[in-house]
Amino acid sequence: MNWQHVAGTEALQLSAIHQAHQLIEPYIVHTPVLQSPQLDELTGASLFFKCENLQRTGAFKFRGACHALLQLTKAQRAAGVYTVSSGNHGAALACAGQLLGIKVTVAVPASAPASKKANIARYHATTVEIEPGMPAREAIIAQWQKERPDASFIPPYNHDHIIAGQGTAALELIKTVADLDCLITPVGGGGLLSGSAMVAHSQSLPIYAAEPEQVDDAWASLQSGSIEPSRGPNSICDGLLTNLGDRTFAIIKQHVNDILRISEDEVVAAMRLLWQELKVIVEPSSATVLAAVLRYPDLFKGKRVGLIISGGNVDLSRLPWPVDYQELT
Amino acid sequence: MNWQHVAGTEALQLSAIHQAHQLIEPYIVHTPVLQSPQLDELTGASLFFKCENLQRTGAFKFRGACHALLQLTKAQRAAGVYTVSSGNHGAALACAGQLLGIKVTVAVPASAPASKKANIARYHATTVEIEPGMPAREAIIAQWQKERPDASFIPPYNHDHIIAGQGTAALELIKTVADLDCLITPVGGGGLLSGSAMVAHSQSLPIYAAEPEQVDDAWASLQSGSIEPSRGPNSICDGLLTNLGDRTFAIIKQHVNDILRISEDEVVAAMRLLWQELKVIVEPSSATVLAAVLRYPDLFKGKRVGLIISGGNVDLSRLPWPVDYQELT
């Protein structure tokens, strides 16, 4: 029996997010919430940034991966786990596996950024390089299901244990900051968004998602009412290129107020602003939330806005703005 | 009577740092203490980074400047204040003045980094450009003392109110992290170091300072037993180019265990490591503390080390490592 199909027949409950938080608390960083008077002035809002870029492995993904592993039985732990990931989920699973003594194998598309591949390898997971795209992804999963029937596939987002884990970031945020008026998170596969949406719903808070125009499949899915495929890999937001899943979409359809689209230039400008004003390293996917607040001011002006900064894994030798080399004297 | 010479006849007491903390608490950010498993592994120590780069105005300097202004009488506040600063102290004073409704004038050497000039101007202080170097600095102060006898000169480090304010960062750090074995801060004029040294001394903790080899006047001063002049402006650590003062040196001589010198290359490597692993923007001056832990491992191996990250004000279009431009597709 495959672990992926054990859960997921009933609607995820908010209590699952509370339970996930209790389980993962010894392993996660209780990430700080930062503010910037400059960004508040610029947006006319009060912005509270939940800094998951300061989470273990540099992304919120560690919450879900760690929770998924903690839900395994002793026998499942002994048999090991595998996944396919071009980035932060792979590193998160590798790190959680290392902490919990569970063998992790990650299939990595050849097209993944070198810095993200290195981030997976550092936690001593076994990595296997595959072709980019869904066919190769599905082929390797099918192969492993046959070869290692006792090992568990830990999907990057479309599973209730993952969704519940990701929701713990929003849970900490609303506990830390009183009287928020709304939340906003990026959306890729929808794990972070759906977990956050359940928390927002429990507090009757509106929740928005930010998505690059060039990969606006979540926006299109919300329009059409069924999951639309990702329209192409042409975004700098390498963490947001995946489709929604049925588990994440079910929650998003029910609880998310709107998906706000932004351009690539807006993402880069917001990323640079966050580096400059918040003094933290954020990856492009994370900058989408500030980009959306700047692009749709009417939704946020005068409001107390909780923004989830999803990750900070970037290659520091390659940046989306021109940089002069300051030689030492 | 000039404000600068009111205090400073008796030794600064630890209670002054506690009082400073109470006074400035409504205005400062209680900055987070961050850790990195990677940096711990690399150094063989447990490193606790007190992130003053996330302080208001992006540097610990706000603590001292805010405290100095809060110590002014009503008449002194009304008469305004002035200073000379090429960077973080000027911005900190401008910001504190804006918050407290005190008129601030800052003389800025023409050679100051553009990003730091902009950081002063944003808080609507009056700025006056002067020639770089001590003679021009002393000339403008003498001129203002004559022209505006009621206005107060707020020095960047050599004053007990400033030292007490800067010491509050270490105070928060030792309250947040139990059982530290030692502290380390950068040293420029010595405000942060002397305030931190008083806190360290009260807990019987050894304290070290990190200083670039190319501007090792604090090291030389500790060797000779009297204040030695800064040996030249040839360091990437633009925050650490000043001489010690008599107030800061008196404390440093008494309580600082050693000054650890590092090379420019070591500073840049440590800066990049901090960006990559801690996911925060630190300026070169701040990176000196990690550089020192890496260079002098025998002092720190197996220890719980508190490091003060002093600031994060850098020009993001000019970095000390080669960066390729990632064009949008």
UniProtKB/TrEMBL annotation, chains A, B:
The lineage of its organism: Bacteria, Pseudomonadati, Pseudomonadota, Gammaproteobacteria, Alteromonadales. GO terms for biological process: D-serine biosynthetic process. This is Serine/threonine dehydratase. Its cofactor is pyridoxal 5'-phosphate; Mn(2+); Ca(2+); Mg(2+). InterPro entries: Ser/Thr_deHydtase_PyrdxlP-BS, TrpB-like_PALP, TrpB-like_PALP_sf. One of its GO terms (molecular function) is serine racemase activity. Residues 25-311 form the Tryptophan synthase beta chain-like PALP domain. SUPFAM superfamilies: Tryptophan synthase beta subunit-like PLP-dependent enzymes. The keyword Magnesium applies. Keywords: Lyase, Magnesium, Pyridoxal phosphate. Belongs to the serine/threonine dehydratase family. PANTHER family: SERINE / THREONINE RACEMASE FAMILY MEMBER, SERINE RACEMASE. CDD domains: Thr-dehyd. Pfam families: PALP (PF00291). The keyword Transport does not apply.
